[in-house]
Design goal:
Strands 1, 2, 3 and 4 form a four-stranded mixed beta sheet that branches. Strands 5-6-7 form a three-stranded mixed beta sheet. It has seven helices and seven strands. The protein is globular. It folds into two domains: 93 residues, Histidine-containing Protein, Chain: A, CATH 3.30.1340; 82 residues, Histidine-containing Protein, Chain: A (2-Layer Sandwich).
């Protein structure tokens, strides 16, 4: 009987300790954990985009992925992280399209084949993401300079897409955003 009571007490202490540890995590720390899970997901590619917002343990995932299983896998990966109480998965699955696939491949090959972007191409997770939906291209991610941002846009605009939206940010812009978050 004492064994059961002791086991129940240990479980209660463990749950209380876990809850206290979760309260101590800042939204930025939780965000960094989510970011790590997304970037180390083996099926995450330059054709996918996932964004996260954290508020009081509620993690909201947004973005677009090329396959339905990615949406589900990513939710499962991040739902187990310390500090995440609930996941609101708003990730959209891009429609299958041969035209979109050809645009993705052509633009990716042209951008990452360009000598200016060779330093990005060699990274495990190249930073320029090419999101194509129904012939419309959006460039997302982080580049080193305004010149890199403009060059990527110019390259992407040469492939017959209906529109090309440039949402690339520079490293300097991202640093400024992180500084704001840290207070």
């Amino acid at each position: 009987m004492w064994t059961r009571i002791l086991a129940a007490a240990l479980i209660a202490v463990s749950v209380a300790t876990t809850a206290a540890a979760q309260q101590q995590l800042t939204p930025l720390q939780i965000f960094r954990s989510v970011q790590r899970q997304v970037l180390t997901y083996p099926h995450f590619s330059v054709f996918d985009s996932v964004n996260a917002q954290v508020s009081d343990g509620l993690l909201t995932l947004t973005g677009k992925v090329t396959m339905p299983f990615k949406r589900n896998d990513l939710e499962q990966r991040v739902s187990k992280l310390p500090g995440v109480v609930k996941v609101d998965n708003r990730i959209e699955v891009l429609p299958a399209s041969k035209f979109d696939d050809e645009l993705r491949q052509g633009i990716a090959n042209a951008i990452y084949g360009n000598a200016t972007f060779s330093r990005y191409a060699n990274q495990v997770n190249p930073p320029i993401h090419i999101i194509v939906e129904r012939g419309r291209v959006t460039l997302e991610g982080v580049v080193g300079s305004q010149l890199d941002r403009q060059l990527a846009y110019t390259i992407a605009s040469q492939f017959g897409a209906f529109t090309v939206k440039n949402e690339l940010r520079t490293e300097e812009e991202v640093r400024a955003e992180l500084k704001k978050l840290q207070g």
